[in-house]
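Ticket 4471: requesting a sanity check on a complex prediction with flavin-adenine dinucleotide. Repro inputs:
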Amino acid sequence: MSDGSFGLSAWQTRRTFIGTGPLAESVAVDMAIIGAGYCGLVAALHLARAGRSVQVIDGKEIGEGASGLNGGQVIPGLKYDPETLLSRFGTAGPRLVDFAASTADSVFGLIEREGLDVPVVRNGWIQAAHTETALRLARERDRQWRSRGADTQLLSAAEVAAMTGANGYVGGWLDRRAGTIDPLAYVTELARIAAEAGARIATGTQALRLERRNERWIVQTSTGATVTARHVVVATNAYSDGLVPGLARTLVPLHSFQVATAPLLRELGEKILPGQQAVSDSRRILVYYRKSPDGRLILGGRGRMSVPRSAADWKHLERALRRLYPDLADISIERRWFGRVGMTPDHLPHLHAPEAGLIAVAGCQGRGVGLMTALGQAIARHILSGDPDELPFPLSPIRPIPFHAFRQIGVAAAILWYRTLDAFEK
Ligand SMILES: Cc1cc2nc3c(=O)[nH]c(=O)nc-3n(C[C@H](O)[C@H](O)[C@H](O)COP(=O)(O)OP(=O)(O)OC[C@H]3O[C@@H](n4cnc5c(N)ncnc54)[C@H](O)[C@@H]3O)c2cc1C
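Returned structure tokens:
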């Protein structure tokens, strides 16, 4: 089974983007973009609109990377709260905080401006606290964002219970800047408008090698055709391979698994997430959930590190579903799927420019819908202007994680340990 093959979220319309297909002939362009997820496509859109010739290539089809498989939660912010970013990044801190605050806006703004055919609900995201310690952190997060003008609110246990219909939370935090989208519709629509802006998009075309010759990059691809370009953007994120030496080893790729229930009966649908907020809980191994526009509960969380073999590999999510919603004990699970999430050791996305004309981005930390949309835009602006200040993060050298090959074993052990701790705190 390959990534995601348990179903691109099939309750969402499986849209085929007309015009894609393998790269049949060699081309020479201004910009080659590897990876047709949110980041690559948003960069392609902006570069094409600025008059650059653009060739995007992806080894798979549109939506078969994380951008079509994700939970559809559009959440602003980074792993760290504003005050931590300010103290850690010094003079670059304020720009980074502004960027972090704006990532959800960049998705909803783009969908609205371009009139994209993407189901959207912007009613906020609840970070639900399962312990008093988690609630203290939520209080602190709320203070830091609210003092910067963000529309956020601390929630009591009763408020979280009323808004989620779920068991077991002592309170939480509502961030009204956030919302949900249909992820597959979003990536498909991005491909459509990038193509309409003039970007060429080839799918089923793996970039195999990058060579620099006469101040141009030559991308050798799996079809035998090449792309010659002045600039290359590598937007392969958690699916990075050996294309840029060392890049894949800067990431710990994790699997995020999801399940979708049958549509909820009306009475339950009115009780569970009546306001359609997105939710993540505060457990070490968290679960996240939302209701789809057609009334299913979609719940996700970490899954096994190796490729799943059967439906039993999603059982932990079904247990979480029953813990939160005992009324759903008998509901049928109609879809199971998974995708890859790229984590970095410092929990921040990394931008690299290892050679002239080459820029690579990786590490979405599972919060890449807003982040990768905003980064795609920032990378395009940076390429067009040459101004490093267009990038929210400083460029950094590619630093492979030591003993990377063993890292996954460590992560698997840590996940097991964290699950045990979470179970004790129930
Ligand atoms: C199950 C799951 C749930 C998630 N839930 C959420 C959520 O609710 N909210 C949120 O904000 N984030 C979520 N994320 C994270 C989010 O989906 C990603 O951060 C985001 O989609 C990454 O976009 P991207 O463009 O950087 O990469 P991707 O969309 O992964 O695109 C990278 C592309 O590069 C291609 N590629 C790789 N190597 C090559 C090569 N050599 N040649 C050609 N093509 C190549 C791949 O085929 C892939 O299509 C989730 C992720 C997963 C997997």
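Notes from triage: The longest strand covers residues 333-343. Leaving this open until the requester confirms.
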